[in-house]
Design a protein that fits this description.
By secondary structure, the protein is mostly helical. Helix content is 78%, strand content 0%. It has one domain: ABC transporter involved in vitamin B12 uptake, BtuC. The chain contains 13 helices and no strands. The protein starts with a helix and ends in a 10-residue tail after the last helix. Belongs to the ABC-3 integral membrane protein family. Keywords: Membrane, Transmembrane, Transmembrane helix, Transport.
């Protein structure tokens, strides 16, 4: 069965893309959840939609941009928005969560305008909205690989700083950690991971892959490191299930991945209550 799946080139690319995204997305998501910024994934995803629409519009209007991959233009928009998020968070120090709805609203508004300028929704836009893991091309796979490597390097090199800032920012700053630099680097990594994930689960569902495995892991994890590994495990199960469903049943891969993540969360939460009746606490972060 596995040999049959891997016999096809598009399945090999889909599997590679899914495994990479299934590793980096929950790792990034865990830091976002701990910092209570999980909704930033939705905001940047909608800005990415604007970038994708802009890329499709450029392809249609200008022959010189025919070779432009909309994923690249989406990445440019997402990276730019991540910088604005950090600027807005510094501007509204007492209301830092305001940055998220501002970017989210702007991303949706610009996306709608650009899509209408490109004569509405088409197959290309739908693929980015809902995900199409089996349609991952070779150039897109290289973008995903590059994003995975870069995200992994940043998180490995700045793991202690990110951990300290996530749990006690004031003490971390007093100890000499460059808060602004670390926050900016992490925001850029989040933007890259979200853009790379849209081919796997789609713009509308990317926040589910980032947060749902983390939510399940926090139910049973007893440490931050354990939550990290469990998040990756749950994400891999979800991605591989979605890939198998897309291949054998012709189901939408993005929707299946998110639904499996929801089922995992419900199973973990339900199992925890059966083992420890009356317990409403989540695992330690």
């Amino acid at each position: 069965m596995i040999e049959m799946i891997l016999h096809y080139g598009f399945m090999q690319r889909a599997l590679a893309a899914g495994v990479i995204i299934g590793v980096v997305s929950p790792i990034v998501g865990l830091f976002l959840v701990v910092r209570r910024l999980s909704l930033i994934a939705d905001a940047l995803a909608h800005v990415t939609l604007s970038g994708v629409a802009a890329g499709l519009l450029l392809q249609k209007q200008f022959p010189a941009f025919q070779a432009l991959n909309p994923m690249v233009s989406g990445m440019v928009f997402s990276l730019t928005a991540s910088v604005f998020v950090e600027r807005l968070r510094r501007l509204y120090r007492s209301y830092q969560e305001l940055a998220i709805p501002v970017i989210l609203s702007g991303g949706i508004g610009l996306g709608v305008v650009l899509i209408s300028a490109a004569d509405g929704f088409n197959v290309d836009v739908a693929g980015y909205l809902f995900g199409s893991i089996l349609a991952v091309g070779e150039s897109e796979l290289w973008v995903i690989i590059g994003t995975g490597v870069l995200a992994g390097l940043v998180i490995c090199f700045f793991y202690k700083e990110l951990f300290a800032l996530s749990f006690d920012e004031e003490s971390a700053v007093l100890s000499g950690i460059p808060r602004r630099l670390v926050h900016l680097l992490f925001s850029l990594v989040v933007a890259l991971v979200i853009t790379a994930s849209i081919r796997v689960v789609g713009i509308l569902l990317v926040s589910g892959l980032i947060t749902l495995p983390v939510a399940a892991s926090l139910q049973i994890a007893t440490s931050f490191r354990q939550a990290l590994w469990l998040s990756v495990l749950f994400a891999q199960i979800s991605v591989l299930s979605g890939l198998a469903a897309a291949f054998y049943f012709d189901w939408a891969s993005g929707g299946t991945i998110v639904l499996v993540s929801v089922l995992i969360l419900l199973a973990v939460a339900g199992g925890k209550r059966l083992i420890r009746p009356g317990s409403g606490k989540t695992g330690a972060a």
